[in-house]
Amino acid sequence: xxxxxxxxxxxxxxxxxxxxxxxxxxxxxxxxxxxxxxxxxxxxxxxxxxxxxxxxxxxxxxxxxxxxxxxxxxxxxxxxxxxxxxxxxxxxxxxxxxxxxxxxxxxxxxxxx
Amino acid sequence: xxxxxxxxxxxxxxxxxxxxxxxxxxxxxxxxxxxxxxxxxxxxxxxxxxxxxxxxxxxxxxxxxxxxxxxxxxxxxxxxxxxxxxxxxxxxxxxxxxxxxxxxxxxxxxxxxxx
Lengths: 113, 115
Prior knowledge:
The structure holds 2 protein chains of 2 kinds. By secondary structure, chain A is mainly β. Chain A has strands at 5-7, 10-14, 19-24, 32-37, 44-49, 55-58, 61-65, 71-76, 85-91, 102-103, 107-112. In chain A, the strands form 2 sheets. In chain A, strands 2, 4, 5, 9, 10 and 11 form a 6-stranded mixed beta sheet that branches. By secondary structure, chain B is mostly beta strands. In chain B, strands 2, 4, 5, 6, 9, 10 and 11 form a 7-stranded mixed beta sheet that branches. A 4-stranded antiparallel beta sheet of chain B has the order 1-3-8-7, with no helix packed on it. The N and C termini of chain B lie far apart (37 Å). The chains are: A mainly beta, B mainly beta. At the A-B interface, strand 5 and strand 10 of A face strand 4, strand 5, strand 6, strand 9 and strand 10 of B.
């Protein structure tokens, strides 16, 4: 079973600070996705990383896929209260079959004004 | 283009009852996946439907069943409800392209509470 472990599970910081969220696995993933989920809503895809070592930027958010494709990180620069939410990493497990997603347990981020 | 919709938004049931949750796929999507998200956890894959057939199943008992209709909408049925079934149930639609991965678009979910 391919598992994804996220850390930290909870993070509360002040507006303007920087933060990094980690997503780790002992297994190789063909790709990893990062989602953000607001209360009462489904997850919304932020980015997909596919190539080992890949770095993608989305405004103040920087996503990196590990060289071995077993881990990923999300770095937020100058966090704002609007960044508050549940951040989930997810990936399709190896092998053929249903295109299911394996999710991490999530990182609940709170940015205080 | 309408997104993924789910109904109802909230539901309260008692142990032993049965429940049916509904999902309308995004226009043009032929695949529906269902996930269970317990409070404070990430979503867990229940099963996927493609062309009205089950196309993979997660670690859920047979009392969790589903249907996909010709218009690609879908239902999730849960029999003999247990307290641990209380969760947010998410539906995600996608287009099966034959690639390793196709982006899944999630609905807002149905919050099920079992008393």
